[in-house]
Amino acid sequence: MRLPALSLVLLLAAAPAVRAQDCLQQIKFPKVGRWAEYKALYNGKDPYTVRYSVIGSEKRGGADLKWVELRMVGQDKDKNFTYQVLVPGSPTEMAQVQEIIMKAGDRPAMKMNGMMLKMIRGQLDKQNFLADVCKQVTLVGKEKVTVPAGHFQATHFHSAKYGSDSWVASSVPFALVKSVGKNYQMELAVYGNGAKSSITEQPQEMPGMGGPSSR
């Protein structure tokens, strides 16, 4: 299990790919304003609050895109970070990201574009939590699962390779209700509407990257 810096990635893989399609049909980016917050624990000692939200939308080149934000907040403020990506409507389309804004700790928010954006597209496509949670999993079945956010009727998928289990429900923004593995656990804590950007400052251009100067 690995946790790449660019996104919270839980690689849950095993068995028939047809079951992955069953899972992916439920996991889609929700409407603008919808958000979901999770309580996560890594290696039994590193607690984080993880929040996914859709904070806006744009049309570029005739395509409808969404601004999706991932924010991680832990005990060590220097390790906190926020990513905002302008992407199509499905987690499976991360390779088509049009723009990325990031803020690490208290450092200024930076905008990635040009060559940096091209480099990161491939990483986001390969290391993408919401899509990877469905890769080559086996279907266990419908189950009632209890998390801090309440009780949910969810679909249970299992990864034999990583000894991991995930529960998803299309009624929840971003669909993920719970995921557990050998060195992590992640549970839905609260969700709702009215999401706004966590980055209130004007992002700076990453030096030497080029590209448009504003969002």
Uncertain spans, ≥5 residues at pLDDT below 50? 1-18, 209-215
- Structural class of the helices, strands and pairings? mainly beta
- Quick one: CATH class? Mainly Beta
Sequence of secondary-structure elements: HEEEEEEHHEEEEEE
Overall CATH architecture? Clam
CATH topology: outer membrane lipoprotein receptor (LolB), chain A
> In one word, what is the shape?
globular
Mean pLDDT: 80
Query: What's the count of strands?
Result: 12
State Rg: 17 Å
What helical percentage do the residues reach? 10-25%
Query: What is the CA–CA distance across the termini?
Result: 34 Å
Total number of domains: 1
Q: Tell me the strand order in the biggest sheet.
A: 7-8-9-10-11-1-2-3-4-5-6-12
Describe the model.
This protein has helices at residues 17-24, 114-126, 129-132, and strands at 35-42, 46-60, 63-74, 81-87, 99-104, 110-112, 138-147, 150-159, 164-168, 176-180, 184-192, 204-205. With 215 residues, it is mainly beta. β1 (35-42) and β2 form a beta hairpin. Residues 1-18 and 209-215 have low confidence and may be disordered. It has one domain (17-205): outer membrane lipoprotein receptor (LolB), chain A (Clam), CATH 2.50.20. Strands 7-8-9-10-11-1-2-3-4-5-6-12 form a twelve-stranded mixed beta sheet. It is built from three helices and twelve strands. Helix content is 12%, strand content 43%.
Give the topology, please.
Layout: H1 17-24, E1 35-42, E2 46-60, E3 63-74, E4 81-87, E5 99-104, E6 110-112, H2 114-126, H3 129-132, E7 138-147, E8 150-159, E9 164-168, E10 176-180, E11 184-192, E12 204-205
Parallel strand pairs: 6-12
Antiparallel strand pairs: 1-2, 1-11, 2-3, 3-4, 4-5, 5-6, 7-8, 8-9, 9-10, 10-11
